[in-house]
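All the exercises in this workshop are built on plain-text protein records. The record below serves as our worked example for the rest of this section.
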Amino acid sequence: IEYNAPDGMSSAEVGVIVDDSADLRDLTSLIVWFASKGYLKIRELEGKKRLLGRDEPDLELVKLKPLPDDAPEYQKKFWGVFFSGKDSVVLSKLGDKHKEIFEALVALHKHFKGRLTRLHLPTVLLALAYLAAGTAALGTSSCVAASDDAAWMFAILTWTLPLAFVSILRICLSNYDMIVRTRLRLMQYLGIMALGAVHALVYSLFVYEQHDCFLQREAMLAVIASGWMVALFSGRMMRDSAYRIEKMSLLLGFREFIEKS
């Protein structure tokens, strides 16, 4: 249990460390964080009136003092969204600031570039081994020599289906939330294996039986299995760095203190 938040970390940095992703909500949390540090004051104003339901309140941000010169670049860029040449701003009158906010997001991402995750070589080698096994199963089939172009296209399509899923899965699981329970991660892996089993079952019952397949059933199932085994390991090719593990231990300890107390 930690009784204080980690020193020197803003709310935006905490958000990136938790899920390895720089999001808009990480940036917007800085508004309250700036106020807690005495850089600005937040005033609630009367907003738009509604005939039905609650009125929409508005907020005014008033600058109290400038950011220090050694503030990170992402903080300076996000600060400039509101106080570029002015000392106060009403959020409803802020205007189009998509470009400036995007630049702040990029700067926040660069602030942690290469510091939170590392490539896990054993997992990569294991995935490549399964790919090699699928290639061997495809290339050593006794029917390959007698196949035509259409048969080859069918085999490649069957093989690339799980590999395409690998690419999507890699994007979805690379920036995973460290607060997510282990049970949910286990469900993800079970889901991948279930999809692979369905793929093999559909091939065996419908595709193989209904068409004159140029590959033996065992060879094609080996091809399918190799692709889904790569999918199974793809989400763990990037592992947490020692820096991320250290900071997350402090953050989770502080989170537990807040929940318990």
